[in-house]
Design goal:
Shape: elongated
Membrane topology: Multi-pass membrane protein
CATH topology of the largest domain: Na+/H+ antiporter like fold
Mean pLDDT: 77
Domain CBS: 438-496, 504-566
Helix content: 55-70%
Subcellular location: Membrane
CATH class of the largest domain: Mainly Alpha
Protein name: CBS domain-containing protein
Oligomer: single chain
Number of domains: 2
Strand content: 5-15%
Number of helices: 25
Transmembrane segments: 12-30, 42-59, 71-87, 99-125, 131-155, 167-191, 217-235, 295-313, 319-343, 355-375, 381-402
């Protein structure tokens, strides 16, 4: 690529590779810092871009950003490929018409509301009809996109499960696919409304624009599908992971390159490639997408740093800030109202109708990618440069706010829907408990002098496997197990004289009430113990007193019952 043509080419006074390395390193460090203060990582990348870009240090200027256009196209292709991997046919089989209607309703509502308000406000401020129409089309289509990563991360952290959660997982993937399709149509029309900006000939009207958009969409779909068939054929015959990575990246790069050369929408072509791969060979697709996911993080870091480097707020007009606010409000209105109407038309559960829209407000990668694509399409001269600057500024400013406000909205929605904490494993449940939550405080105990006949009567009335022995001060001195009792029956003639002290064994281990349950279970499994005596917390240097017994089989049974209860709760609210 031009941007890596030589390590000695300089921008200002620094070599380009030094700037690239610094962008990757400090971008990652900035994201880590933002994560520590509970802000989305993407903001850290963008802030570093602001620092090294035109906004502050000027280490990355307009010429270098233009040289990075092939890299941006490649990064966007990876995003499109990963989105396509989420569109498995099982989603459509499982949800069918309901899912499609909801996606179209909330997506088109967002597009219409954002496009209308942005276009109207722009006209009121500038009086420029062409600019208003172009911005309405571009920002309206970009407003359809949802950030899968931020949304899914909150759902996973909340351990959410239920109809709302399931719908969100499906819709965030389809949202981006719809955004790509609408953007391809909108940008094709917008370029012909403002032809001088992109050097396009002002031939034909709206029908010609739609025909061009259809050609771009169909061409991208055919290119991605054909490449997917080829990649699937190759992966079926190649088992080596290193070669698989080369073939996957090579095919993806080929699709992007051909798409750019032929004038097709490259993100859509890459998405079609991902759809074909994930549906033709689900098992091989899993490993293919894992390979790309491991390969992609440095590319994402550099991509978002470059997004920040594009920004320049020093001479920003006041009305651009107004457009950011209008965009955010319009997006919220469109997503929430569209989700409600779509859910109502399809008879979705009340939780989906009420709270789905709140889960659709995050925006990041795809929205930024489409904004950059718009800037690339409209060029860097005259009216086109103005359009590109406005779109990038509005989208990036909105993302700053939506990435902060969006995740709390998702968390609020799943909590109100009653789905938080339902998607748990036994290990998750165990991690939330202490020994005090599971100890059997009614476990029978025997004094040291209890005769064998008394012990046998007690055992006949209980289902415990072990029985603690305590002294007069209720301090634990030993434990009797059923195996110990079996061995005592071989002492003929002595059974009438045996007492608990004769039958007990030293306690192999014991735990306190405040110990995490997971630690206690690990200790039992490592030592192959069926139970552990539980003591109260020591006070004033004195040993804790016996409070009950922790039995492994009872813990397992109680965890299974809680898992079943939560699953029944999910099923009761499901579609």
């Amino acid at each position: 690529m031009m941007l890596l043509a030589t390590s000695s080419s300089e921008l200002g006074h620094l070599p380009i590779l030094l700037i690239l390395g610094g962008a990757l390193f400090f971008g990652t460090a900035g994201a880590r810092l933002f994560r520590r203060i509970r802000f989305p990582q993407v903001l850290g990348y963008i802030v570093i871009g602001l620092i090294v870009g035109r906004m502050w240090l000027g280490l990355i200027d307009g010429e270098m950003l233009r040289n990075f256009e092939p890299f941006n196209a490649f990064a966007l292709g990876i995003i499109g490929f990963m989105i396509g991997g989420e569109l498995h046919r099982d989603i459509f089989k499982r949800f069918g018409r309901q899912l499609i209607v909801i996606v179209l309703a909330e997506g088109l509502a967002a597009c219409i509301v954002v496009g209308s308000l942005i276009g109207g406000v722009t006209y009121l401020i500038t009086g420029d009809v062409q600019l208003s129409l172009v911005l309405g089309l571009l920002l309206g289509s970009i407003g359809v996109a949802t950030a899968p990563a931020a949304t899914v991360r909150v759902l996973q952290e909340s351990k959410a499960k239920g109809p709302l959660t399931t719908t969100v997982f499906a819709v965030v993937a389809l949202d981006d696919a719809l955004a790509l399709a609408l953007f391809a149509i909108a940008s094709s029309i917008a370029i012909r409304i403002l032809p001088a900006a992109a050097g396009a000939a002002a031939d034909g009207g709206i029908l010609v624009a739609l025909a061009h958009a259809a050609r771009d969409l169909l061409g991208a779909a055919v290119l991605g599908t054909a490449s997917g068939l080829l990649l699937n054929w190759i992966l079926r015959r190649k088992r080596d992971q290193e070669r698989a990575l080369t073939y996957i990246v090579g095919t993806l790069t080929l699709v992007i390159g051909l798409g750019r050369w032929l004038g097709f929408d490259t993100i859509l072509a890459a998405m079609a490639l991902g759809v074909v791969v994930t549906n033709l060979a689900p098992r091989r697709a899993g490993s293919a997408f894992e390979i790309v996911e491991r390969f992609a993080p440095p590319i994402y870091v550099l991509f978002f740093v470059l997004v920040g480097a594009h920004l320049y707020f020093n001479d920003m007009e006041w009305w651009l800030g107004v457009l950011v606010g209008v965009y955010i409000v319009a997006l919220a209105i469109g997503k929430i109202s569209g989700s409600y109407l779509g859910g109502r038309w399809t008879g979705a559960p009340a939780t989906v109708r009420k709270y789905l829209g709140l889960c659709m407000l995050c925006q990041a990668g795809v929205a930024v990618g489409l904004a950059l694509r718009a800037a690339e399409l409209f060029g860097d001269q005259g009216a086109g440069a103005l359009v590109g600057t406005i779109v990038i500024t509005v989208i990036t400013g909105a993302i700053f706010i939506l990435e902060l406000a969006g995740p709390p909205c998702v968390k609020y929605a799943v909590n109100k829907a009653g789905e938080a904490g339902l998607d748990v494993t036994e290990e998750d449940l165990m991690a939330s408990y202490t020994v005090a939550d599971m100890v059997d405080r009614s476990a029978p105990t025997f004094p040291q002098g209890a005769p064998l006949t008394m012990i046998l009567r007690t055992i006949a009335d209980t289902d415990a496997m072990s029985y603690p022995v305590v002294d007069d001060d209720k301090k634990l001195v030993g434990v009797i197990t059923l195996n110990d009792l079996k061995q005592s029956f071989s002492a003929e003639g002595l059974t009438a004289w045996l007492v608990a002290f004769d039958l007990m064994k030293p306690v192999p281990d014991m735990v306190t009430e405040q110990l995490p349950l997971a630690d206690a279970v690990d200790r039992m499994r490592q030592q192959e113990l069926d139970c552990l005596p539980v003591l109260s917390e020591p006070t004033d240097g004195e040993e804790g007193r016996f409070v009950g017994l922790l039995e492994l089989r009872k813990v397992t049974r109680m965890l299974s019952q809680e898992m079943l209860r939560r699953q029944q709760q999910v099923d009761a609210a499901s579609f």
